[in-house]
């Protein structure tokens, strides 16, 4: 999880909003480093934000009420992704 949040922080420092964080958009390399892929909905923080796009399951609720895409939305989406992964990990411990 540290790698996911670290990569998100790295692109946020560059002013990038990914806008579609979900499990499929994080990959783990052979050396166990995490990389972000699929920048199809990405935008820069200082640009006009397009209509909300991305995967609804991982999107913050405020996007559906007309709010702009922000880095806070990326944090929410990454948190949902991490929680989902942790839940799967915990489930596998008990099986």
Automatic annotation (TrEMBL):
<feature type="domain" description="Protein kinase">
    <location>
        <begin position="1"/>
        <end position="95"/>
    </location>
</feature>
<dbReference type="InterPro" id="IPR000719">
    <property type="entry name" value="Prot_kinase_dom"/>
</dbReference>
<dbReference type="InterPro" id="IPR011009">
    <property type="entry name" value="Kinase-like_dom_sf"/>
</dbReference>
<dbReference type="GO" id="GO:0005524">
    <property type="term" value="F:ATP binding"/>
</dbReference>
<protein>
    <recommendedName>
        <fullName>Protein kinase domain-containing protein</fullName>
    </recommendedName>
</protein>
<dbReference type="InterPro" id="IPR008271">
    <property type="entry name" value="Ser/Thr_kinase_AS"/>
</dbReference>
<dbReference type="Pfam" id="PF00069">
    <property type="entry name" value="Pkinase"/>
</dbReference>
<dbReference type="GO" id="GO:0004674">
    <property type="term" value="F:protein serine/threonine kinase activity"/>
</dbReference>
């Amino acid at each position: 999880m540290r790698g996911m949040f670290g990569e998100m922080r790295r692109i946020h420092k560059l002013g990038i909003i990914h806008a579609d964080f979900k499990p499929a958009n994080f990959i783990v390399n052979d050396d166990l480093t995490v990389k972000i892929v699929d920048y199809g909905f990405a935008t820069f923080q200082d640009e006009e934000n397009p209509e909300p796009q991305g995967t609804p399951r991982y999107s913050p609720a405020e996007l559906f009420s007309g709010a702009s895409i922000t880095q806070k939305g990326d944090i929410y989406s990454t948190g949902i992704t991490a929680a989902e992964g942790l839940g799967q990990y915990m489930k596998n411990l008990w099986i």
